[in-house]
Fold this protein.
Amino acid sequence: MFAKRIIPCLDCKDGRVVKGVRFVDLRDAGDPGELAEMYNHEGADELVMLDISASREGRATLMDTVHGVASRLFIPLTVGGGVRTLHDARRLLSAGADKVALNTAAVETPQLIGEIAARFGRQAVVVAIDARLEIGISSSPSGGNAARRWNVLTYGGTRQTVLDAVEWAARVESQGAGEILLTSMDADGTQRGFDCELTATISKAVHIPVIASGGAGSLEHFAEVFMRGAADAALAASIFHYGQHSIRSLKEYLFAQGVPVRLMKN
Amino acid sequence: MIALLDYGAGNVGSVLKAVNYLGHSAQAVDQPELLKKATKIIFPGQGHFGQMMAALAERGLLEPLREMLDARKPFLGICLGLQALYQGSEEAPEIRGLGFLPGCVKRFEGVFKVPHVGWSQLELRRESKLLAGVPPGSFVYYCHSYYGPATEPCAATTDYGQSFAAAVELGSVWAVQFHPEKSSEVGLRVLKNFLDA
């Protein structure tokens, strides 16, 4: 059985996890290392750390953070946020990351995808795509015609590009991306469910795994994105951080729904 | 001395981290003289089959490796380090492998996504020292596009559209296609089995 992956995401700023982490059983809920270990113990299949530090000092701290997290984490670790050059990628990978996530830099310098893949292997390159439904093209919510288009956004979702998300996904695959981390900017933050239509469209357009992100608010949402959205993995932050649902309980739920997941033996 | 074979592209760092975590030390080795002094060899491979074999040849590591395998020196191949043991690979048909195991490495074909990235289950084929204490059906982490045949001396296989070699054990020569250093408790157990053997 090949498992669908559940991936918690840690948003880090200046070496601390932000985005309202509310765990009662942690000594220090903002410590990335401690959270990483807890998620690993709960059965996370992978971990993503996104650096949202604005300052140079914050970025320097990131290396220490990655090193600290990686030294006691024995599941794959992806690090993203501000990766602009081959040098940035090399530093993160040598600090202990297994994969780097590229977003804005991939759009602005697409050859960077291939450069990192050639040096470190395709498996080390995750291209993050932030996509938003193009406004003005109408289509019924029930699906209907293939009229829907999603635009790619950069700079943390603040800047719109002319890129079509489906075309861009196919292009990053041909450039050397090993996986796609797909965030629906329409769904992100709503807790009303993943964008299954977007996810399924992208997942069927490429041959590499697609990680769905944005919108997770309930256990059912995860089952939907795997079954209807054809996602290979699902990423979420708040739903886990706030302790609404543990990864363990999510996986038990998915298993009962017939979704293949890795359950811990103990 | 436990040697971590370093041919320039393997994931030596993350394997070393796991070895250290388990209370052992190991040394990254890229010289034939040093390799010959090793009591155990871990060969973590990553990247392209042809480039790996070329890098090993360039560093003069091929012959000592073949000799050590023939002498059944304790060996643990990981990922491409397993694939290196076969006669060759479809990834670089013109280049020979170490030739320690019969058969060739093939590329996944079919409806499943390639590379095979993520967690799949182990199907234990027989008793082995390598997988001692690993429960049947355990999940391990994979990241590969090519695979070795699900024939003897496989200790475990995995199914991804077709059955392939997940773990191989021939005397003290062991190899796994999955990444024990990324497979959480199960992976650490496999590494520990090798380190303690």
Q: What stands out?
A: The CA atoms of residues 156 and 184 of chain B lie 18 Å apart. The two ends of chain B are 14 Å apart (CA to CA).
